[in-house]
Amino acid sequence: MTSAASPVLVDGLDRPLREVRISVTDRCNFRCTYCMPRSRFGPGHAFLPRSQIMTVAEIIRLARILVRLGVRKVRLTGGEPLLRPDLEEIIEGICSAGALDVALTSNGALLAPRAQRLKDAGLHRLTVSLDTLDPQLHRGISDSGVALQTVLSGLSAARAAGFGPIKLNAVIRRGLNVTSILPLVEFAREHGDIMRFIEFMDVGESNGWKRSEVVGGAEILAVIAARHPLEPIADGTVGQVARRHRFLDGRGEIGVITSVTEPFCGGCTRLRLSADGRFHTCLFATAGNDVLSLLRTGSDDAAIAAFISRLWVVRTDRYSEERATAERRDPRLEMSYIGG
Ligand code: SAM
Ligand code: SF4
Ligand code: SF4
């Protein structure tokens, strides 16, 4: 519902709609073992047919409607968004639709030649996924032929283009890259970037998630603080998912995203839109709500806004808070499809 005092759409648990994550493609040039394991996303995998993927104009039209409904922040994701040659047009259109904060999450492999164009298109903020600084381990985790150095060159180009501080996302998995935590922190401090450590999540059905492989945020913070003392940053920002900490020596900050050990569903103000134009009200959704068919069969903006509003006002998702007790449900959608 929207109240007269504040034109904010709130859901069934009183959470405002503030942010949308738009997946612009379900394809990727990496096969990260925690996201798109090759056993499931091999040569025979059926990606969405091109005809079912939202066009630039469709994405921009939806962004404009979402901004009118109260969305302030748009994050473009995927799959790998830089696989879309028209990404800059999408960014320009979303900026002109009135979004106050337009961000992109990328694996960085194709960033070097595009960084300046992304900046020129109006992109405000950039997040690059970087799970380790060990070239062999990077090759193993990303399961791609892309060298770590290519990603690091992408980061340099992005800093030179004026993105910064860049957020660096690392998924930490026990037995895999715990020893990468400190080198990543030191790399980020040296370059003025911000590390975000993400707990390994049970998104989708194919990444072989085990609770025992989750390295909790508290443990990650302890590893870092033992070398570089930290203090929490009090952050009252609505929808802030990272627990932020600053270094006591004044050289930057880090964040941990504790969706498994300390869920934050109470502040979840995000809607998700998959590349085939379906809205999802939770990262752990089992089905989406098709808006692309409405667009393609001539619905006007008012009808589409009403469709989105109806979805949001009945939303009661809080999967991460219910994880321990939740009944087994229908198969969850994959991260690369829903967009992370
Ligand atoms: N391909 C881009 C990238 O990797 O940055 C954007 C899409 S990716 C799905 C978005 C984010 O989700 C990445 O930072 C990735 O590390 C994270 N991610 C994927 N699978 C995950 C999992 N099982 N647990 C936690 N984070 C995950
Ligand atoms: Fe691709 Fe990103 Fe998933 Fe890795 S995390 S497989 S880069 S979508
Ligand atoms: Fe939001 Fe769902 Fe994640 Fe909870 S589990 S924070 S409701 S996306």
TrEMBL record:
List of residues binding GTP: R21, R75, T105, K167, R270, L271, R272
SUPFAM superfamilies according to UniProt: Radical SAM enzymes
Reactions performed catalytically: GTP + AH2 + S-adenosyl-L-methionine = (8S)-3',8-cyclo-7,8-dihydroguanosine 5'-triphosphate + 5'-deoxyadenosine + L-methionine + A + H(+)
Binding site for [4Fe-4S] cluster 2: C265, C268, C282
GO biological process: Mo-molybdopterin cofactor biosynthetic process
Domain Radical SAM core: 12-231
Enzyme Commission designation: 4.1.99.22
Binding residue positions for S-adenosyl-L-methionine: Y34, G79, S129, M201
Cofactor(s) named in the record: [4Fe-4S] cluster
InterPro entries reported in the protein's UniProt record: Aldolase_TIM (IPR013785), Elp3/MiaA/NifB-like_rSAM (IPR006638), MoaA (IPR013483), MoaA-like (IPR040064), MoaA_NifB_PqqE_Fe-S-bd_CS (IPR000385), MoaA_twitch (IPR010505), MoCo_biosynth_MoaA/MoaC (IPR050105), rSAM (IPR007197)
Pfam families reported for this sequence: Mob_synth_C (PF06463), Radical_SAM (PF04055)
MF annotations from Gene Ontology: 4 iron, 4 sulfur cluster binding; cyclic pyranopterin monophosphate synthase activity; GTP 3',8'-cyclase activity; GTP binding; metal ion binding; S-adenosyl-L-methionine binding
Metabolic or biological pathway, per its Swiss-Prot or TrEMBL entry: Cofactor biosynthesis; molybdopterin biosynthesis
Annotated keywords: 4Fe-4S, GTP-binding, Iron, Iron-sulfur, Lyase, Metal-binding, Molybdenum cofactor biosynthesis, Nucleotide-binding, S-adenosyl-L-methionine
Similarity annotation: Belongs to the radical SAM superfamily. MoaA family.
Oligomer and partners: Monomer and homodimer.
Name of the protein in its database record: GTP 3',8-cyclase
Organism: Candidatus Aeolococcus gillhamiae
